[in-house]
Design goal:
The structure holds 2 protein chains of 2 kinds. By secondary structure, chain A is mainly α. Chain A is built from 11 helices and no strands. Chain B has a single domain, classed as Orthogonal Bundle (MetI-like fold). The chains are: A mainly alpha, B mainly alpha. Chain A: Its main location: membrane.
Chain lengths: 270, 290
């Protein structure tokens, strides 16, 4: 590697450090026995993790978050399969406009999605609950699911399906027996990404959940109380480890799917 | 025969796309149209007066507080976008040109991980890092480099900019990387053969070809930052609101939905105008390429 390459490498590593700075600090403060989040550190403790485990509101928030994330990711992926299949396999009028509109939440400030939905729900007299959050999360997870699924569907060889028709399968049979197994890694990857997005989503959960806590809204409510912060650091550590595990799993399935349909390995989830 | 086949295909495609499209229509289009309608109505006490008016927009464009918040959001979003794209470019360049092909995926994965971890906690940790007794200040005073904690990074617009630049870094790196990957390496060799040096080749060949990626990165960072709600709330403690905080206050705390809607619609209009300008620039660059 030449000199400018080495300079760039140093810069890139420095940049990675900047990206990881908060995540590196998280476990440090989670195991620090001092109640104030500042240096110098006091001693090592696992109290914060124990307190986290014993917190009833936090458990409720976790249950709520999991309920929302599981429902929203399944719904978003189901819708995503329809959209990805339509956009990669068929030509039809208005395709660009419709797909563009479905992908719109990706580039719309979330506060606008949340506020406009809230105004309509309140106007209709709908009781805010976990269900309203699921409705909102499904909307914002859908574009990400479609992005992942489109890659899976577009690299599909159409002749495989045609072979199934020739061998006497019905349309549904060919889809279930040939297409679905081939795009399964993409589906799992879309589920995991939607799950991760929903689990971490704050704005929509904050405004559409009514009085029900979710993990991010619980964290937000605790950030105001300095005494509660160490427990939040412990919770953050657990969440970071969980997200990394889920993403690594998603990436693994995405690559396996790519390999199965003979694609070249490409990087990144986006 | 061909026409019949096209119709069957079109019908199959349309019926497949119907469920997600109808969902987006009901959950997104209806609410957006509702706030568009609200923005032309007047807020009465306890009820909305159904008389079309432009008064909300007049207020949005003349009220000094709204103008301050709008300008702050625009300036913060512009600085964050500039800082993110400029600092991200060398990283994307490094991954595309210097990293061995089989290690590229790993680098991209490492860069995307921080983006997927709890946004709230990351924002809060920047407050901890930059705060009065924070990591930066306590380290610098501990080493005797400074006597008093640095104040220019304390709970103000600067710390909002740093936090947002950190949050949206992967968004900037990925599109630039994709554009750089598409560049035909023989073009760079041709540039060198024709007597350009390393720097002029970069300036006259690589950078113009990477421009679509840079423009995509600009948009992809600018849009969410201008509408960010969490960072001003956590870092600024509600004292330095941006446009999203103001929309929320008008809609809920002050219960002035028409004015809140007008703010939201104006924000969307600004985002749309900026996007159109950049998409237009992108088309010009694409035309130059052909």
């Amino acid at each position: 590697m030449n000199r400018s390459g080495r300079g760039l490498q140093a810069y890139a590593i420095f940049y990675l450090l900047f990206l990881y700075a908060p995540i590196i600090l998280l476990p440090i403060f989670a195991f620090n026995s001092g109640t104030i989040i500042a240096f110098p550190l006091q001693g090592v403790t696992t109290d914060w993790f124990a307190q986290m485990w014993g917190n009833a509101t936090l458990r409720r928030a976790l249950t709520n978050s999991l309920t929302i994330a599981v429902s929203a990711s399944i719904l978003a992926t189901c819708f995503g399969v329809f959209a990805a299949r339509a956009s990669t396999r068929f030509v039809f009028p208005g395709k660009g406009g419709m797909m563009g509109f479905i992908m719109l939440p990706m580039v719309l400030p979330e506060i606008i999605v949340a506020m406009s939905l809230l105004v309509v729900l309140l106007g209709m007299g709908v009781q805010l609950s976990l269900l309203t959050v699921i409705v909102g999360h499904t909307l914002i997870c859908m574009p990400y699911a479609i992005a992942v699924l489109s890659t899976a569907f577009s690299s599909l060889d159409r002749s495989l399906e045609e072979a199934a028709y020739d061998l006497g399968e019905t349309k549904w049979g060919a889809f279930r027996l040939v297409t679905l197994p081939l795009v399964m890694p993409g589906i799992i990857s879309a589920l995991l990404i939607s799950f991760t997005i929903s689990l971490d989503e704050f704005i929509i959960a904050f405004f559409l959940a009514g009085n029900e806590p979710t993990l991010p809204t619980y964290i937000f409510s605790q950030l105001r109380f300095p005494r509660a912060i160490p427990v939040i650091m412990a919770l953050g550590t657990v969440l970071v480890i969980l997200s990394i595990a889920l993403l690594a799993l998603g990436e693994y399935f995405r690559r396996r799917g790519n390999a199965r349909i003979g694609g070249k390995p490409t990087g990144g989830l986006m | 025969m061909a026409k019949a086949k096209f119709d069957a295909e079109a019908r199959a495609g349309l019926s497949l796309i119907a469920p997600p499209f109808l969902y987006a229509l009901v959950i997104l289009a209806v609410p957006l149209l509702t706030i568009l309608a609200y923005s032309f109505l007047t807020d009465g006490y306890l009820e909305i007066i159904r008389e079309p008016t432009l008064a909300n927009y007049a207020e949005v464009f003349t009220d000094p507080i709204v103008r301050t918040v709008m300008m702050r959001s625009l300036i913060v979003a512009a600085i964050v976008t500039l800082a993110t794209v400029v600092t991200a470019f060398p990283v994307a360049y490094y991954i595309s040109f210097c990293v061995r092909p089989e290690r590229k995926a790993l680098w991209l994965f490492l860069i995307t991980i921080p983006f997927w971890t709890s946004y709230l906690i990351r924002v809060f940790l920047w407050k901890v890092i930059l705060g009065y007794n924070g990591v930066v200040n306590s380290t610098l005073t501990g080493l005797g480099i400074i006597d008093e904690p640095l104040t220019f990074i304390l709970y103000n617009v600067n710390s909002i900019v740093i936090t947002l630049a950190h949050a949206y870094a992967p968004f900037a790196i990925l599109p630039i990387f994709v554009a750089l990957e598409k560049i035909d390496r023989s073009l760079l060799e041709a540039g060198r053969d024709l007597g350009e040096n390393r720097l002029t080749t970069f300036w006259r060949v690589t950078l113009p070809l990477a421009m679509p990626g840079v423009i995509a990165a600009t948009l992809i960072v600018f849009i969410p930052t201008i509408g960010d709600y969490v960072t001003p709330e956590v870092i600024g403690g509600g004292r330095i609101p941006m446009i999203a905080n103001m929309i929320q206050v008008q809609m809920l705390a002050l219960d002035n939905r028409p004015l809140g809607s007008a703010l939201a619609v104006t924000t969307m209009a600004i985002v749309a105008v900026v996007s159109l300008i950049f998409l237009f620039l992108n088309r010009r660059f694409l035309r130059v390429r052909q």
